[in-house]
Amino acid sequence: MRMVECVVVGGGPAGIAAATTAGAAGVETWLVDENEQLGGQYYRRLPPQFGVHPAKKEPRSALQVAELIKRARDAGVSFKVGTSVWGIFNGKEVHLASCGATEAIRAKTLVLAPGAHDRVPPFPGWTLPGVVTAGGAQNLLKGSGVLPGGRVLVAGSGPLLLQTASMLVEAGAHVVGLCEAASLGGAWRQGLTLVQHPGLLQEALGYMWILRRARVPIWKGTIVTRATGSTQVEGVEVTRCDPLWQPINGTQRSLEIDALVVGYGFVPAIELSRLAGCDHWYDAVADTWVPVRGPNLECSVEGVFVAGDAGGVLGAKAATLQGCLAGIAVATRLGRGPTALHERMSSLIQRRLRKLEALGRGLSAIYARGEGHYSLAEPDTIVCRCEEVALRDIRASALEGNVTLNELRARLRVGMGQCQGRLCATSIAHVLRLTCGIRPELAGFYTARPPVRPISLASLVASMPAGAVAMRGDRQAEGSTPLGL
């Protein structure tokens, strides 16, 4: 098994920054990403074979990520794109899969920067074709130049909704409205925090101007309670909600649409840090589990670092700074470069991060999270999409005494599908809260099990140690199943 000094997982802003910083310090660094192009969600762009229309300029984001990739290459970073990390064993033994081939490498240090995924609590009709997440809509636009629909409603909560709605307008969609669950009444209280980030304010005002020019109404304190349609989404029911995001009876109205873009923020992708054996804690404000990290982003497992949104969602700027901080920590641990310089650089980055963390707290106050959207599902609403488990089944099992996520998984198979619980874990934890009064932190989370990304059976067998393959062959000779089970 090959030994590599540093393996960075995730090719977004945090991963690229970590790899570049470590590589520039002389650390042998591999940057692994499952996409064919580096950049992550933030810098996602059209495939090179699409080309750019002669009348259009190359998007600024494409130029930015091209420069970042060049810096990483100049720093000596090796790229492994189109490659999934499907397992981490013994702390830092990383197993990769690409085009049916597998590879295992032993990392002296490991930086995990897999980002985050959309939070979408279940509601009636949310599984209809045409209902997509905010991140999914951006993927379609950035990565394929495809609209999710022609007549679109954007709903949920958080600053990403403004950006997504603006992108849809500029791409030619008719955005019928933007439903923001938060009332935004406390925005003025965060004025002092916001004015310290003029670039962010300018960006937000730019999105507002795009929507105002397109006459897109913004309905604050409003939530989508139902999507309707036969073979695809054809309409939605929107309702005014109170500060806890509970629908207010008698305020419902219907809209005709052919696509619904919905998102209530993000949940850190922690499956890899869990596989690595890192400790996690429940952040009640963010309503999610996050890895326990020290000042230099090192986790409870020595030599494992988590950077970017996988450690708590703060945006691309913070992710980039955290990537640099993790890269410096890797170089320090491996004895590369002057320690005094590393300490000064880390101190500077940590001061800038504290400022962005204050901004994050301010935005959390502006978009104060309610819990009413977790009570929208009806008894026959599917909660675990992969295994098609409905709300009534989860409630019944919980009342029988299965009051942790692992117990429910053993009983109902929730969280055992392709997404490995990424979509349903938070929602099911709140089903337990509403059904039995079990707090989400007591419900726990699903035990992480490889493979955390889809991998073919042939690739899985090819990754087995030679002795295990020989044993399998012996069992076949004894008349057992082809897999030796």
How does this model look, in words?
This protein is α/β, with parallel strands linked by helices and 485 residues long. It folds into three domains: 2-117 and 267-337, FAD/NAD(P)-binding domain, CATH 3.50.50; 120-264, FAD/NAD(P)-binding domain, CATH 3.50.50.60; 377-443, Orthogonal Bundle (Arc Repressor Mutant, subunit A), CATH 1.10.10.1100. It has 15 helices and 21 strands. It has helices at residues 13-24, 60-74, 134-144, 160-170, 191-195, 198-213, 271-275, 316-333, 339-366, 391-399, 405-412, 425-436, 440-443, 457-462, 466-477; strands at residues 2-9, 29-32, 78-80, 84-89, 93-98, 101-112, 116-118, 131-133, 151-156, 174-180, 218-220, 222-228, 235-240, 253-256, 259-263, 266-268, 280-283, 288-291, 304-306, 382-384, 389-390. Strands 1, 2, 3, 4, 5, 6 and 19 form a seven-stranded mixed β-sheet that branches. Helix 4 (160-170) links the parallel strand 9 and strand 10. Helix 4 packs across helix 6. The longest helix has 28 residues, at 339-366.
Which key terms come to mind for this protein?
485 residues, alpha/beta, FAD/NAD(P)-binding domain, Arc Repressor Mutant, subunit A, 3 domains, five-stranded parallel sheet, 21 strands, globular, disordered C terminus
